[in-house]
Amino acid sequence: MTGSAYVFDLFADGFAENPYPHYAELRETAPAHEHPLGFWLLSRYDDVARLQRDSHSVDEQHLSRLPSWKSDSGTLGKENRMMRGLALLDRDPPDHTRLRRLVSQAFTRRAVEALEPRIIELVDEALDRISEAGAADVVAELAFPLPFTVISELLGIPRVEHDRLRDLTGTLALGLEPLASPDLQSRTRGASRELEAMVADLVDWKRGRRDDDLLAALLAAEHDGDVLSRDELVAQVAFLYVAGHETTVNLIAGGILALLRHPEQYALLRAEPALAVNAVEELVRYDTPVQLMRRITREPVSVRGSVIPAGSWVVACLAAANRDPEFWGADADELRLDRDNAHRNVSFGAGVHHCVGAALARLEARIAFERFTQRFAAPELQGVRWNGRINVRGPASLPIAVP
């Protein structure tokens, strides 16, 4: 197949279950691929890593032309974006720099590390339930409730709100899918507005209280007289709530699935629990929880013989880059928990948009992988059902049996 005739198909049969052969073809056939729907795809490690580091935009106002699949963005503008484009994910410097500085004051590594005893408690409770039952769905018992509970408690979200918030964040995660239909875009806008309203009520309730949680800290965050406006605060809290668990669910569930499918690596981690830190990096490389990232070029970019014009929508295929043999070597498709450069994965981003919650995700995953493998000698994988997503991809159900 020639490069000129090739069109990458995100919706090919079997893609959601196993996209990696499709990404391999993309890397080899058209590593800088101009899709007929009006966007570019990058899939080689070096190109994706450079795009992450460079100062390109995340704001649609810099587009020179709207991709045809963005059906109603041109008329709705920021109203078509999650949290109306006010969250960190959608802001460029200097606004992004200012917001991140304020948010980071309440999201420090020290604050995250202080959560370790609570995370251990939650993991052990889940493993107790699985052990007692003798069989369980890892997603339902561990991978979802762990990060959901942690981010809820971290932010200080009352438990009475949890069920509806869970529904809303699930809809918003669907809104991150490529080529979202007009109906899904409409549902996403509705979910975003409802989530914003719930968070706004929570912010008003929190003011004046002396709670020790992230939301209270964000209310108090200030730098040289600068504070978050009410709309900015609502957007950051809502964004952190969505990002704080949806992606980590995929990391934990996908990581346990990969370990169960590679019993020699499972045995290695069980024998060497100190390997868990590096295991997180390798597992997030091997099966990337968020597979795609977008940027809008500020100037022309030369990539492997092609020139991407300024103002272009560029999709970086993180999952493809994380298995690029040009960077990782001939064993790029293999799982090796002791891979010495696993930490160079592109899963958490780089540059100004490096994931603000990366330390929390790593901590939750490390404890889950380490204690799961120590607790169960030889769990039996009884199947997997994928969530059907292209971008925020992971198992929706992962039934196992334990001796």
UniProtKB/TrEMBL annotation:
Keywords of the record: Heme, Iron, Metal-binding, Monooxygenase, Oxidoreductase
Keyword Heme among UniProt keywords: yes
Pathway participation: Antibiotic biosynthesis; vancomycin biosynthesis
Annotated SUPFAM superfamilies: Cytochrome P450 (SSF48264)
Statement: the UniProt record of this protein carries the keyword Transferase: no
GO molecular function: heme binding; iron ion binding; monooxygenase activity; oxidoreductase activity, acting on paired donors, with incorporation or reduction of molecular oxygen
Similarity remark: Belongs to the cytochrome P450 family.
Role of this protein: Involved in the coupling of aromatic side chains of the heptapeptide of vancomycin.
Stated name of the protein: Cytochrome P450
Species whose genome carries this gene: Amycolatopsis echigonensis
